[in-house]
Amino acid sequence: MFKELDMGLKFQGTGKHQEWITGYVDSDYAGNVDTRKSTTGYVFTSNGTAVSWKAMLQPVVALSTTEAEYIAATEAVKEAIWMKGFMRDLGCEQKTLTVFCDSQSAVHLTKHQVFHERSKHIDVRLHFIREVIEIGEVSVKKISTQHNPADMCTKVLPVDKFGYCLDLINVVKERKP
């Protein structure tokens, strides 16, 4: 159904320059059956088209779904900082870059330690994300799992859901003449 040779990214201007880059992040929980490590996936778009993406096994075993999502969000925020600097070098200033995450508990955890008893095991080095959010460099917001294109980076999806995720990041099928 999807052949890599007849697919491509469609770049188009929107006239809206306040949000040059937008990020989407997701994780699965303990998806690797051998190591029980989770997978991080993120996609960054510029005017709706994918410009950066990654899917990787997390370096540690997460003890909860919240921790797996928080680790993924931390990786996405690191990429967001890099993307923001890259765009600034190109002369495209963006005050705050938004990263969308489909885990409400991870989004809350990025802003403050609200789940202390259930999240005190999370490595302190991951909490740098709070500082980045506090100074307004990046914001992390909730998105419905149904509309999160990073979902395709972390798990096997039905063909129609995978196609929908491709549509979300402007991957188009080449039209044959």
TrEMBL record:
GO terms for molecular function: aminoacyl-tRNA ligase activity; nucleic acid binding. The keyword Ligase applies. CDD domains: RNase_HI_RT_Ty1 (cd09272). The keyword Aminoacyl-tRNA synthetase applies. Keywords: Aminoacyl-tRNA synthetase, Ligase. This is Aspartyl-tRNA synthetase.
